């Protein structure tokens, strides 16, 4: 199965058209004895489209997860849209969007599990802390579990 992932990045005010949108230098990641990434380096100029191709297990998803702050690299460093992926992770998450190749909801998960998954992608462990403080509507309180909330989407 081929995995296609799209990463959308809004250009921050400090990034000019000549700067790299994605800068990766010597990034490595291991899972136990398995070296998923070893010394990955790449530069993508603003306005370019990047496709990651390779066989299963080549490290494509691992690299995307690192660049979107879902995983921390074991070595090396990277910047996306002018933000350091480790030091500026919170600011970077506000500037990017990530969408997989399939629908926005996982058909295997229930409605509640899909909401929890999106919360995890935004590193939201407590939904009350993830709402816009200017918002008067607490979506988690308004969501009323129903018999369908425990069924697969």
Structure, described:
By secondary structure, the protein is of the alpha+beta class. It folds into 2 domains: 5-100, P-loop containing nucleotide triphosphate hydrolases (Rossmann fold); 111-150, no CATH class. Helices cover 22% and strands 27% of the residues. The protein is built from 5 helices and 6 strands; from the N terminus they run βββαββαβααα. It has helices spanning 60-67, 89-95, 111-121, 127-130, 139-142; strands at residues 5-9, 20-31, 34-45, 75-80, 83-84, 96-100. The strands form 2 sheets. It has a 4-stranded antiparallel sheet with strand order 3-2-4-5, covered by helices on one side. The longest helix has 11 residues, at 111-121. It is globular and about 50 Å long. The two termini are 22 Å apart.
Question: Secondary structure elements and their pairing?
Answer:
Elements: E1 5-9, E2 20-31, E3 34-45, H1 60-67, E4 75-80, E5 83-84, H2 89-95, E6 96-100, H3 111-121, H4 127-130, H5 139-142
Antiparallel strand pairs: 1-6, 2-3, 2-4, 4-5
Structural descriptors:
2 domains; disordered N terminus; alpha+beta; 153 residues; 4-stranded antiparallel sheet; Rossmann fold; 27% strand; 5 helices
């Amino acid at each position: 199965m081929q995995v296609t992932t799209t990463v959308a990045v809004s250009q921050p005010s400090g990034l000019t058209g000549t700067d790299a949108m994605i800068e990766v230098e010597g990034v490595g990641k291991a899972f136990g004895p398995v070296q998923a990434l070893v010394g990955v380096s790449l530069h993508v100029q603003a306005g370019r489209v990047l496709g990651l191709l390779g066989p299963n297990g080549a490290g494509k998803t691992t690299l995307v997860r690192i660049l979107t702050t879902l995983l921390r690299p074991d070595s090396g460093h990277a910047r996306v849209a002018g933000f350091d992926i480790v030091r500026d992770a919170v600011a970077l998450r506000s500037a990017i969007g990530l969408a997989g190749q399939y629908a926005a909801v996982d058909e295997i998960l229930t409605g509640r599990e899909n909401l929890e998954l999106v919360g995890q992608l935004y590193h939201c462990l407590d939904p009350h802390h993830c709402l816009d403080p200017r918002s008067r509507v607490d979506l988690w309180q308004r969501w009323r579990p129903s018999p369908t909330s425990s069924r697969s989407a």
